[in-house]
């Protein structure tokens, strides 16, 4: 167990703290924990690359931690009414579709290599920025308009584009399966 993996596991443990903070209307706490989680993501990535501590476990845990954090925040903020529920459904559905496609490819014995697309990296940046803005606005009482609409639009477009590209790639990959006779 490397230091970056321990940091990533700690980030996963922050997920219920953020959910509790949002559910308890402790938005300053939620924002602070979100910042800590973001800094820990940067630190574990830096350590893994700089000191050659990258591992297979870390390659699986890091995106899992990121998704658990973002999905939990979006769901919590959606339930709380701070972001539109349709956006929550879109963000969560994208992740469910991608995980489902990966699982189906494994079941059929054709695991698809998981390599993040540039649009997905941009999508993650937009999702993080939007969540940070919403949490910050709730924590510190500022009006995020019109930037919230811009970021919400970016999340929407990038999420749709990302899932579309992943599904096209997955269908192309899976189309090489021979039908059983």
Domain module tally: 1
Task: Provide the low-confidence segments as ranges.
Answer: none
Write the CATH homologous superfamily.
CDP-alcohol phosphotransferase transmembrane (TM) domain
Rg for CA atoms:
18 Å
Biggest sheet, open or closed, and with what strands and sense?
none
Gap between N and C termini, in Å?
46 Å
Question: How many strand units?
Answer: 0
Bulk shape:
globular
What is the helix tally? 6
Q: What's the CATH class label?
A: Mainly Alpha
Protein name: CDP-diacylglycerol--glycerol-3-phosphate 3-phosphatidyltransferase
Organism: Rhodopseudomonas palustris
Transmembrane segments: 86-109, 121-142, 148-168
EC number: 2.7.8.5
List its salient traits.
mainly alpha, 181 residues, Four Helix Bundle (Hemerythrin (Met), subunit A)
Structure description:
With 181 residues, the protein is mostly helical. The chain is 80% helix and 0% strand. Helix 1 (3-23) runs antiparallel to helix 2 and helix 2 runs antiparallel to helix 3 (56-80). The radius of gyration is 18 Å and the shape is globular. The mean pLDDT is 94. Belongs to the CDP-alcohol phosphatidyltransferase class-I family.
Helix-strand layout with pairing:
Layout: H1 3-23, H2 27-50, H3 56-80, H4 85-107, H5 118-140, H6 147-174
Helix pairs in contact: 1-2, 1-3, 2-3, 2-5, 3-4, 4-6, 5-6
In short:
By secondary structure, the protein is mainly α. The chain has six helices and no strands.
